[in-house]
């Protein structure tokens, strides 16, 4: 997760920005509750430091990616010791957790690849239900991540993903009916099957397979902005994945308005003050720190106006300093490599929660 790594195979040419056009007038939806949180990296940094920063932001939600394979590489049972400490710390601080549960023990799939789902999807569902039953402050689960990409699902298949969603929904609701089930946010990208599916096309496949009844919220990722969220033209091309409004409304309309959007990864990439961009993210070199701040705030404001959202998770708080490196997640961090806040931190701090 963390952006359109596969947007380009070679760096795109630098182009003169085109003035942004105003967003079309969308008809507001019925969803008036909006929770705002941020993704953190507690496995690579101090949980207490993250708690302090989240409190400074005034947020009550965090998203944590739980990598099942890391705690159970040999299919002998998950080692909960580290996750117990993390979840307990957030619970003590009154912070609710959205868990994105990904990967599988290599021994659970025929390719021996931890980045792919298990051959028996019930095995994944049972693990997610076990996690949900263990932690009262786990209040939402995102079922897998970016299943429209081959690197996450081998050959993406909306029907098979819907089976995972169904099995996980049923297993979790049996033990924790209060936990919100969110479909996997897809990578915003174009259609090039079999290993690379347009995100809206992939979601339409989930809807066609009956997946809406197994989700409380539509998972979405928006992380390839080169223009403000209010713009629907002015980027390198006209594909929806470069634009905030067309991306989220495309998913919402694919569900005929029956479910709200949970924007589980909303990020603006900038390498200003950080160094050269990681490979595949050359498209983001023109974004500034101030644009990162302004566009994140603008996206939240639009979400409140449109009323088609249930949750927005900012991508991300601290992936850059947690790894002290520049990888595909670093340009989205609202903290610098030395833990100093970027302008986006202060801008989000001022947003009403």
Summarize the structure.
32% of the residues lie in helices and 13% in strands. It has 353 residues and is an alpha/beta fold. It is globular, with a radius of gyration of 19 Å.
Describe the structure in your own words.
The protein has 353 residues and is of the alpha/beta class. 32% of the residues lie in helices and 13% in strands. The chain is built from eleven helices and eight strands. It has helices spanning 47-57, 68-71, 81-92, 121-134, 150-153, 158-175, 199-208, 244-254, 289-306, 319-323, 343-349, and strands at 35-39, 61-67, 96-102, 138-143, 180-183, 218-222, 261-266, 309-314. The chain has an eight-stranded parallel sheet with strand order 5-4-3-2-1-8-7-6. α9 (289-306) links the parallel β7 (261-266) and β8 (309-314). α4 runs parallel beside α6 (158-175), α6 packs across α7 and α7 packs parallel to α8 (244-254). The chain is globular.
Give the topology, please.
Elements: E1 35-39, H1 47-57, E2 61-67, H2 68-71, H3 81-92, E3 96-102, H4 121-134, E4 138-143, H5 150-153, H6 158-175, E5 180-183, H7 199-208, E6 218-222, H8 244-254, E7 261-266, H9 289-306, E8 309-314, H10 319-323, H11 343-349
Helix pairs in contact: 4-6, 6-7, 7-8, 9-11
Sheet of most strands: 8 strands, parallel
Envelope shape: globular
State the low-pLDDT regions, or none. Answer: 2-22
Q: Residue-averaged pLDDT, rounded? A: 92
Q: Which series of helices and strands comes N to C?
A: EHEHHEHEHHEHEHEHEHH
Radius of gyration: 19 Å
End-to-end distance:
25 Å
Number of strands: 8
Helical content class: 25-40%
Helical run tally:
11
Strand order of the largest sheet: 5-4-3-2-1-8-7-6
Question: What portion of the residues fall into strands of 2 or more residues?
Answer: 5-15%
Secondary structure category: alpha/beta
């Amino acid at each position: 997760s963390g952006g359109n790594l596969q947007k380009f195979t070679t760096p795109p040419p630098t182009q003169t920005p085109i003035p942004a056009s105003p967003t079309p007038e969308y008809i507001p939806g019925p969803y008036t509750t909006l929770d705002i949180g941020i993704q953190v990296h507690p496995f690579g940094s101090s949980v207490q430091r993250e708690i302090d920063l989240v409190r400074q932001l005034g947020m009550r939600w965090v998203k944590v990616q739980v990598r099942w394979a890391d705690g159970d590489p040999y299919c002998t049972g998950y080692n909960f010791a580290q996750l117990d400490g993390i979840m307990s710390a957030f619970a003590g601080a009154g912070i609710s957790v959205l868990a994105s549960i990904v990967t599988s023990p290599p021994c659970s799939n025929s390719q021996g690849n931890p980045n792919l789902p298990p051959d028996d999807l019930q095995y994944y569902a049972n693990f997610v239900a076990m996690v949900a039953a263990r932690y009262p402050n786990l209040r939402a689960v995102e079922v897998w991540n970016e299943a429209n990409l081959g690197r996450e699902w081998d050959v993406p298949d909306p029907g098979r993903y819907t089976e995972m969603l169904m099995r996980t929904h049923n297993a979790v609701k049996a033990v924790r009916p209060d936990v919100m089930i969110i479909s996997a946010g897809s990578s915003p990208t174009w259609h090039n099957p079999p290993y690379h599916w347009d995100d809206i096309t992939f979601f339409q496949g989930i809807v066609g397979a009956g997946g809406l009844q197994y989700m409380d919220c539509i998972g979405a990722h928006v992380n390839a902005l080169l223009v403000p969220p209010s713009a629907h033209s002015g980027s390198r091309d006209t594909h929806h994945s470069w634009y905030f409004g067309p991306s989220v409304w495309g998913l919402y309309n694919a569900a005929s308005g029956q479910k709200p959007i949970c924007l589980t990864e909303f990020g603006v990439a900038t390498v200003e003050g950080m160094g050269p961009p990681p490979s595949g993210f050359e498209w983001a070199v023109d974004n500034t720190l101030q644009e990162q701040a302004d566009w994140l705030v603008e996206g939240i404001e639009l979400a409140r106006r449109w009323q088609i959202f249930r949750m927005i998770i900012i991508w991300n708080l601290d992936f850059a300093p947690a790894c002290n490196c520049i990888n595909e997640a670093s340009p989205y961090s609202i903290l610098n490599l030395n833990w100093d806040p970027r302008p986006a931190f202060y801008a989000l701090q001022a947003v009403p929660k």
